Amino acid sequence: MLFVNDEGEMISSGSGSNAPGLPRVPYGPGALVAERYLLRDEIGSGGMGRVFVADDRLEDREVALKICYVGARSNVRDRFIREGQLTAAVKHPNIVKIFDVGTMDDGHGFLALELLQGITTREEYRTGPHPKALFILDSLANALAACHRSGIVHRDVKPENVLLAERDDELVPTLIDFGLGKPLADQRGITEQGAIVGTPGYMAPEQVLARPIDTRTDVHGFGVTAYELLAGRNPFLSVDTHETLISVLTRRPERLDAFLDVPVPLADVVERCLSKQPEDRYPDALVLRDEWLDARRVSAA
Asked: pTM for the complete prediction?
């Protein structure tokens, strides 16, 4: 994930619990958080904190508990809390559930999430066209439509943020990680004005240019994810971050039906999603979902 620091340099958000400038979370297995969550195994860590399996003693259930570094910058902590509040506001089978959001007495923030068993779309299939691409994209379109109906933009749509979760013996594609999410009504938000926020290769041109974003930004993210799952490659990604960002701004990907056995109606939808100008895309994911599902029905007829 990419941010711009105060000096205008592009930096990564960090990938481990020892990210520069961030202290370790002083909690581990056996600790009791908020007098309610008993921590068990650590299952993940990142630039903002750590994730544990925990027993919710109030509701008698297992949860995934994310704890934010108290030493993180204030905007990072605010973004962490906002992630929980935004996710909790959207109720949909294809979106991860948030049970609780709070701040401990020592300043650490925490999120109690649905504990999902599964792997991300990226982890399940790393090379070539994804065999479950259409199934995953149907669910992603529905999830984004629910976000936009609730007035929320995800801003980081990509295969890594779609978990193939196992629920009641069924595989359910689930949209996760609302850490960059933003209410549509909030035109300033927590991110510094003029900052580049997102993941190179999946960002829309307006994100690269640090311009205002809206629902059409997520429509572009859907298009990139659809292209990648159907073609087996990202249409913009390069080994060099700057080259990737330039490609997002200037490169027009080859239509999917030009080199794959992809029905024309589906290729049309993906092509429109990837338009460089926001006004040339679908206005939001509700319209996108309807157009995508219509194209699926026409293609299957």
From this structure: 0.85
